[in-house]
Amino acid sequence: MALKDILFLLENGDKSEQINAYALSFAQQCGAHLTAAGVIMEMIPPASFMGEYPADILAGIAEQTQRELEACYQRLKAAASREQETELVLIQAYPGLSRDEFGRLARHFDVTIVGQGPESLNDDELLAEGALFGSGRPVLVVPRSHKGPAKFGKAMIAYDGSAMSARAIADALPLLRKSGHVELVTIAHKDKAANQLPGFNMTRHLARHGITAKLKELPPAVDVGASILSYAADMGADYLVMGAYGHSRLREFVIGGTTRTIINSMTLPVFMAH
């Protein structure tokens, strides 16, 4: 399978141009159609202002957001090549419902690209979680610090033998085939031979897909996420493939453990599946 239909969360804030340019470059290199999703949050007036808060003010804020998103998309479209197909889709919903709307939209694409959010759980991060846990499709998170086009030369896979990491690898096969160097990284387990490591059978599976992956064992670590990111920097990886861990608490998606550590501290694009 190839990645031919890509969704990304269009941004118009700080450093948005780098994220938008990355998404365009990613789609161009995959020969894929790129759909930009702009989210317009419906404002809910505080209870103390109900009945007296001017509706035209709220409408004006939504209209301004729409104009900014449309202008941002036009800049993206102007930067695309003549052969590149793009389109803009606008989602207008209340904050709590926009996450679900974005997740449902993401079900219709091969992968969704989002920018890294801040450590606090804000609306942008909830949208990313909506796509990750609500779409059944992979999500590629791009760090705010990223500069330049998408690169696929060196790939790192964080593998622990779980269903989530296996799913991420399967979804990432089209990208892994583009990579000249692939390393499948596991965390060390005592008293296990090389052919008993979680990644041994997976490297054979990848080889049968024409992908040569080197199996690398990292020493035991208290902070697994930090260990993974440290090794990714050492090997100069262009992107990381991993399973995403999380759960739902009263319909609120929550990323936990290693996944949140990596998302908060990431220095390279991370391709995730759940």
Biggest sheet strand order reads: 3-2-1-4-5-12-9-6-7-8
The CATH topology of the largest domain is what?
Answer: Rossmann fold
Largest sheet: number of strands, sense, barrel closure: 10 strands, mixed
Contiguous helical run count: 8
Bulk shape: globular
Task: Kindly report the average pLDDT value.
Answer: 86
Report the structural category.
alpha/beta
Query: CATH class of the largest domain, anyone?
Result: Alpha Beta
Q: Please write the string of helix (H) and strand (E) elements.
A: EHEHEHEHEEHEHEHEEEHE
The fraction of residues assigned to DSSP E strands is: 15-25%
Indicate how many domains the architecture comprises. Answer: 2
